[in-house]
Structures are given as C-alpha cells and as structure tokens.
Amino acid sequence: MRDAIQIARTVLAATRADLLRRPNVVATGVGLKRSAGGSDATPCIVCSVAEKLGASNLSLRARIPDQLDGVPTDVVQTGRLRALAARTDRQRPAPGGVSIGHRAVTAGTLGCLLEKDGARLILSNNHVLANSNDARPGDPILQPGVLDGGRHPEDHLADLAAFAPIHFIGAPSRWSLARATAEIANRLARLFGSRARLRATSDRLVENLVDAALARPLRDADVSDEILEIGSIVDLASAELGMGIQKSGRTTALTRGEILQVDVTADVEYGGGRVARFADQLLAGPMSQGGDSGSAVLDDYGRLVGLLFAGSENTTVINRIENVLVALGFGS
Question: Do 105 and 11 lie in a common domain?
C-alpha cells in the first residue's frame, strides 16, 4: 500500500498542472478509491470537480482519464471551493447560516433566500429582522448583526420588507380595542338616550403559526443562494414525524436532528415578560442555541421544510415552511 501511494503521489506531481487546467476541476490529490462493495481501497489520483457531469456532456479535453501512467483516477463532486469566514464575520455575498439582524437586535441567522415577484428576498424570523413587531418596513438590516460588530451604515445589507406580526398573550389585540371602542360608544348612547348598543364579538387568545420576516437586499449581488455547509435548496417539502433534518446557524453551525413531534402547540417567551402561543409547530431535539434563530431547516435531501425560531437546552421549535410562505404572501 505504501509503495502504491508513493507511485500515485509521483504521478500526480507530474500531471496536476494539466489536470487543473481542465474545466470544472477545482482540486487534485491522492486518495483511496473504493470498489462498489466498499471492501477494497486502492490508492488513486482524485480530481475534485465543481459539478460531476456525464461523459456525453464533456469535451474530450475536459474528461478525466480512467488512469494516469497506470494509476487509477477518481472524480468527486465538491462544488466550488471558497475561503471560509467565521459565521459572525461580514460576508459578501452573504450566504444562509451567517449572522444578521435589525439594527436594534443583537443577532440572529440569515436563513435563506426566497424569490418573490422576480426578486430575491432574505428569510429569517420576525424577532431577528423586525425586532418582535417594533420595526417598520424600510428599517436597515445589518450583516453581521450588532452583537457581532455590525454597524450602520457600513454593514447595511438589506431593508426590512415585510413581517408576520406576533400576537402576544395579554397584549392589546384588535378585539380588546374593539371592546373598548364599543364601551365608549355605548356610554355615549346611554348619555343621549339611545337604546342601540354595540358589542365586541371576540377577545380570545390569538395563536401564532410563524415568527417570520423578509428583507430586501440593497444589491442582489451581495447575497448568495448557498447555505453554509448545506448548499442550495433543491425544493420544498412538508415535514413529517421521524424525518431527518439539518440546519446551518450563526451559533452552532451545521447540526442535524429529527422531527420528534408534529402538531405542537407551545408558549414561547420573548423577554420582558412577553409570551406568545404558537400552534402547528414542529419539535426536534437539541440542535440549536441562542443566535440560531432564523435558520432554514432542510431535510436530508436538501428540501426546505421549516424555519427555526425557538428552543431550550434540549428542544428546538420550528415553523412549518407552508405556514411561513402563506403568512409572508407567497400564496395559500
């Protein structure tokens, strides 16, 4: 084995310049080529490519020979190789999984990009991009977030475009306002002798489905469709019990888990004594920490299934992507 590896290294030294000149090849090295059964491991020259294509889609010049001077070759798809930066650094173009936030918020996670009306928009949480309802459309969004050194205007990446309001338990709602208005009107009616009366129709607790918001990049070139350590979203899917999932977040980077519960109703604390009830949620195990809010949640096949927004030491709570899209105006 040692002699075979040395031979492969010698052949690679003589051929790597030519291999790297071929389109699609991004790296070369010496590795082990395994048989279909996985039992053998033969030293070989490995060519890493941005995208693995069939021979019919490649010119003769672009194809990698089956062997070079008697040493077998192997072709592995790795994608384009980029210098890695910390998730809390300023990144342009900014991919999913990095620090982001409204200028009045510490920091959360840039989830992913969604396309609406021909424009790419940043998806994250309301409490990350819209400061838990306290922001206004057009407010500046920073990358990285303030906690990670983001400053305005230097790190101004996007403007808040839209958000789904969060209804907090005990907070004045439109029903409470209606009831107060009705009471005032009824007092005036009594004062002027009228028998007509108004009645507010409801004051029930409002359950939320999502904690979600969108931001519009100032320059489309400043954002990327890639999600760090995951890649591009390939499709949408509906999460199911037992489904394997993954997320890429500002704090805990790439983590994997499983949908442990569906149809979850949970009371989530937002600080300052505010609590909001969420229905139709997904629950996974400990795959997130503070700062991961806003992470896109994908299944093992790269399909977008949810938006991470809350959790504890041993639990992660996720909005269903179907509810997110409806709440943000992508259809019903």
Answer: no
Q: Is the pLDDT of residue 15 over 80?
A: yes
Coil, helix or strand at residue 144: coil
Q: How confident is the model at residue 60 (pLDDT cuts 50, 70, 90)?
A: confident
CB 225 within 8 A of CB 176: no
pTM of the model: 0.72
Q: Where a domain ends, among 77, 103, 136?
A: 77
pLDDT at 77 over 90: no
Interior/surface letters 230-256, b for 16+ CB within 10 angstroms, e for the rest: beebeeebebeeebebbbbbbbbeebe
- C-beta of residue 96 within 8 angstroms of C-beta of residue 114: no
- Gap between the Cα atoms of 234 and 56, Å rounded: 24
Domain that holds residue 13: 2-77
> Which residue stretches of 93-235 are H helix?
126-129, 174-191
- Strand arrangement of the beta sheet that strand 213-217 belongs to: 108-109, 99-102, 140-142, 156-163, 213-217, 119-124, 112-116
Token pair for residue 267? 């009371």
Residue 32 and residue 132 share a domain = no
CA distance 327 to 319: 11
- What CA–CA distance (Å, rounded) separates 244 from 221? 32
Q: Who wins on pLDDT, 10 or 57?
A: 10
Residue carrying the six token digits 């179907």 = 322
Number of structural domains found in the chain? 2
| CATH number of residue 229's parent domain | 2.40.10.10
Name the average pLDDT for the chain.
88
